[in-house]
Amino acid sequence: MSQIFTGNFTQQEPLPEESIEAAVRVMRHGRLHRYNLSDGEKGETALLEEEFAAFTGAKYCLAVASGGYALAAALRAAGAQAGDAVLTNAFTLAPVPGAIANAGCTPVFVEVTDKLVMDLDDLQMKIAQTKARFLMLSHMRGHIVDMDALMAICDRAGVQVIEDCAHTMGAAWNGVPSGRHGVAGCYSTQTFKHLNSGEGGFLVTDDAELAARAIMLSGSYMLYERHTAGPPAEVFEQIRLETPNCSGRMDNLRAAILRPQLRNLPDQCAAWNARYQRVESGLANTPGVKVIERPEAESYVMSSFQFLCPDFTAEQMVALQKRTAARGVELKWFGADTPVGFTSRHDSWQYVSAQSLPQTDRILAGLMDMRLPLTFSLQDCDVIAQIIREEAGILHQAG
Ligand SMILES: *Cc1c(COP(=O)(O)O)cnc(C)c1O
């Protein structure tokens, strides 16, 4: 009788008791809006921003309603105008092209490599072709491109980089935290990311004017001086009257439950990586399966797992998905024609004009993905790897 896995791939851990107590305190006093403060009170949101700025080493931090909101605000605050072309990854999730569209701009997709990062040759070509001044770089599924090479290309061409760190909170490239290479870094605290407030996000930057514009955009009214992780008041003098209010603030309740989680983040990251590495070693040398190589300069945080079956046909990919699902292992296939669940492909974003990305299409056709929530034990990870190994092996042999 073959082994069956009974864990739940979408069940995250409960929130820490400290978060629950902090939430109850906020609910008892009732001051949920970030600017609703008693005398001398900084508020949970401002404190969280100070702490997240310190965590990333950024000068300024703004906490907002979602990661997607942070991305759109960063792009606008960096100076993108409606109609501008914005380069971005062809392999990413829907909130990224969505944020570009939200800022009134047009996504231009860049090919992915078989290391699941942006193809820098294609990036250079598309910078030359489009003369784009912005790149929204998505560290999709936690895979970090050679940031030294990417920044050299973008700096030379005068392209501003906004980093989508939804999957790299806590990660680094060559010792520099993810989100700190470009002009702004954006993070998500949606339930399936590295901190959980249901929905939420952060924007960090060292650029005082960008920070001031983002704060005004988020809906600070003239209360920007309450942003203790924001730039000094004089930076707002000019821009405060020329920046629209597009409300997207984080509230004190969500900030309260995030602060204890942020303190635990390094331990959580280590726990995710232990699970990732367990699956990685369980899948090593599996016929038909290619595990993604990780560069030495990358300090990853992997709360999900990806592998390639480069020689499988579409039928074999579907069969692998079905066979592992029958044994309790939920794989997401990025090659399907129509988006399912959280998967999506550049050609399913039909508000963007169709673009030809043959390399990305070929790679995604062989890409499988799964979550590794911290509710899984290391033994669970062994079982998952074993099931994939057996089923891929059967299909490869029948191949
Ligand atoms: C989750 C996610 C975001 C931001 O999502 P929100 O739900 O808006 O917080 C951005 N990029 C990627 C790749 C994501 O997975």
- Largest sheet strand order: 1-9-8-5-4-2-3
- If classified by CATH, what would the architecture of the largest domain be? 3-Layer(aba) Sandwich
Associated small molecules: pyridoxal-5'-phosphate
> Can you count the helices?
12
- Percent of residues in helices comes to 25-40%
What Rg is obtained from the alpha carbons, in whole angstroms? 21 Å
Could you list the spans in which at least 5 consecutive residues all have pLDDT below 50?
none
Assign the CATH class of the largest domain: Alpha Beta
What gross morphology would you assign? globular
Q: In oligomeric terms, what are we looking at?
A: single chain
Distance between the termini: 24 Å
Q: Which fold name fills CATH's third level, the topology of the largest domain?
A: Aspartate Aminotransferase, domain 2
- Count structural domains: 2
Largest sheet: 7 strands, mixed
Q: State mean pLDDT (0 to 100 scale).
A: 96
CATH superfamily of the largest domain: Type I PLP-dependent aspartate aminotransferase-like (Major domain)
* Order of helical and strand elements: HHEHEHEHEHEEEEEHHHEEEHEHEH
Beta strand %: 5-15%
How many strands in all? 14
Computed structural class: alpha/beta
